[in-house]
Predict the structure.
Amino acid sequence: MLEILNRIWSVFTAILQFTWLYDGVAYLVENVFQLSMESNLGSSVHFFIYDVIKILILLSIMIFIISYIRSYFPPERTKRILEKLGGIKGNIMASLLGTVTPFCSCSSVPIFIGFVESGVNLGMTFSFLITSPLINQGAIVVLLAAFGWRVALLYVVMGVVIGIIGGIVIGKLGLEDQVEGYVYEMKMGSGEVESLTRKQRIEYALGEVKEIVSRVWVYLLIGIGLGAAIHGWAPEEILTRYAGPDNPFAVLVGVAIGIPLYADVIGTIPIAQALISKGMGMGTALSFMMSVAALSIPAMILLRKVIKPKLLGIFVAITGCSIVLVGYVFNFILH
Amino acid sequence: MRIEILGTGCKKCEKLEENAKKAVESAGIDAVVVKVDDMKSIMQYGVMSTPGLVIDREVKSTGKVLSPEEIEKLIK
């Protein structure tokens, strides 16, 4: 299995042949900008230009492929699959479907109501709601570009596990009374799931590429810019001492910073990549990114429309704790 | 003709409303474009991914921003 994945990955990178890009940008830096590749400034400029172009190409291709697959899993269909399930199996399925169902935080309220109304239990609904923003297609692509498929896969697996466990715990706590009353009174019409033609799926996928790239490119530029600056200048010893895998508090601090930070998770990845190359623990960086993705203030404000503060607090606490745990596991494994 | 835009006020919903108005204008059809942000009404249409486009009480699309041209095809 590992062998096959490794081969696919090397074929994939070989096709894209980013060495041409690397050399091309190096030529540009040395001959047009007249900067030595050995100097701090030169290597930072090279890193910046190379990374921006590489990630934009990867992002476009991968989002197209992922969106095409996702067009088969509209939330209406996901709901129909989930309403027949229950128990731990239900949590596992909900979390897995959370990875493929197209999700935008503005849809979290109608999805929540739709699930609860059709009898999907609260635990399963949360399994879905926790995994969905965590496994964000853009984030996966950038992780893939920055760290390779091993870390990207580990991130996806951990995200799914967090969703399953979080949902099971919330389900066991019996918090049905913590859902706003009006949710139970909602009557849901039977939404027809339009079946798409291949042309429509391609159009949808292209639309997603356009939409996501136009939304995140600013964050990417900022992120890669900061990453390049860190790459060229940040002193290694300080980061290793304070944010390295040996500091037990680094993960906690990372998650705490990530929650109120309203940034696109895609922009945080290049920063994380640079910090890791300077000695920050991989788990620390990953849990920081997960907390940016899964726990943002605007998403909480939306969820507050359907659940009472106590449940919202429990949701944040459980998700936060699981992310911290994942950080420690990663630091341990990848040390 | 009554065109309804279902959505709780995210950017995509605003964009769809804008496109619908453009489509009505260029098609030269007598139609009203209404924004529906009340959860109850949205759920009655069975729509879980916003924005949704409804024409004369029939759901035409969900979860995506149609271009003015695409909407024009639907209303003609």
About this structure: Chain B touches chain A at residues 7-10, 12-13, 39-40, 42-50, 59, 61-65 (CB under 8 Å). The two ends of chain B are 11 Å apart (CA to CA). The domain at 2-75 of chain B is CATH 3.40.30.10 (Glutaredoxin).
